[in-house]
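ingest -> fold -> write
write: protein_1
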Amino acid sequence: MRQEQLNLTGFSKKEKRRDLDFYPTPPAVTIALMDFLKLQPCVIWEPASGTGSMSNVIKNYGHIVIETDILTGNDFFNTYNECNAIITNPPFNLSEKFIVKSLQTADIVCMLLKCQYWHAAKRINTFKKSLPSYILPLTWRPDFMNGERGGSPTMEVLWTVWIKGNNDCRYIPLEKPFKK
């Protein structure tokens, strides 16, 4: 029974998390967000850019992207960049800190989070204090392991979006975009 529970939630004892929670974001995840947002060209900071998988998609939409990552010596919490928006897939273990700092830094903040992220009692105050504009669950399960694990991806994710002055908190599922 314990093994079934672990597999249902996407974890198992034999699987070890990657260093610094580094899981590159598949392009379709960012494409779905960008198609939804329809932002005019602006400056976007990607503070957990890793190898640039998300940044490259954002650039294709005509934006200037500031890429920083702890892997390249740019710790988000010790850095400031002037920007219009912050869009990132934060390391899960630091996600709440990423949210708090991002909301203090930019008028538009988009965080890719696990679908059950806001279900935790310890995060309810953050949610209530900074009510999002949108909760955008993906209608597919992205493969963050790029086929390494084998089988179907198990983790469901959503975008949480804050737009200054808009805290209606609408829930809108995003469909997987066709390849462009």
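write: protein_2
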Amino acid sequence: MINKTITILGSTGSIGQQTLEVADHLGMSVIALTAYKNVELLKEQERDFHPDVTIVGSEEGGEDAIIDIAKSSDADIIVTAITGEAGLKPTLAALETGRRVALANKEPLVCAGELVMETARKHNTEIIPVDSEHSAIFQCLHCCAGRESDRPKQIKKLMLTASGGPFRNKTPAELRDITPEQALKHPNWTMGKMVTINSATMMNKGLEIIEAMHLFNVKPEQIEVILHPQSIIHSMVEFTDGMIIAQLSHPDMRMPIQYALTYPGRTQGLTRSLDPTKLSGLTFEKPNPDIFPCLALAYRAAKAGTKACAAMNRANEEAVGLFLKNEIPFTDIPVLIEKALNELI
């Protein structure tokens, strides 16, 4: 049993639901839950977990109430799992509390990385990343890099692994006829629609490049993306002495979620143990830029700065929305993103 309390911003999404599963497993008390518009699921969660407060936000309103919940939360840990740019203001509000923030959405760091990290420093707030890749890097650094202030100087390269999604072996011509139904079938992970499409285009990894820059205080050129279809190694760190440290586990988001909730301790989890003798083989390859043009766009935005990153993220969200509604082909997602960047830089 973990004697801690938790608030979850975005409890009805994929990460929010898995966080509740982990919190229940750990015996944690739920203080507050917020959702975007899935009222029925939120009601179920309210019946099951008995939070003090539940809030529903939507395009018509509710954002201020969610921000107030974040600001006033007296939970030990605030999990920010609101998808997209809508998560920025609640995340900043959570950081202002000085309580641990388990950061599960990329967009706050992508759109306002300097502001997010400065807010955390100002309020002495601990940020624990929930993304499997950034959790892996965090764990490698925590185990092997000494004092936090020394870690950036010891990093030679961060290696973000990516499964390559469902279209790793497609040709550029084949991608044009991809349907939303096909793109939403990820081979290894169970995620929300936006994240799953981002994984198929590799924009998800592009966002993670920007996220890693801010979390670990490194330059874009110190971050490499490597395709690893088995999703067993979740990321690696190469240190200045040439040593590479990796984190391995089954592809199950409940593991990095639990680590964010129990850090620096560990306890029995919900995920089965990894038996290396039963692995059929681990393979690695460089991503094909013709299949994944979003990666180059993300590096371009990362080098250009915050405004370019925010513009890229907004263009991506709009493009993915159009694709999911069958209004543009899959291959037009990077075209629209590049157009947005060209107008800015």
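write: annotation protein_2
The two ends are 52 Å apart (CA to CA).
The mean pLDDT is 93.
pipeline exit 0
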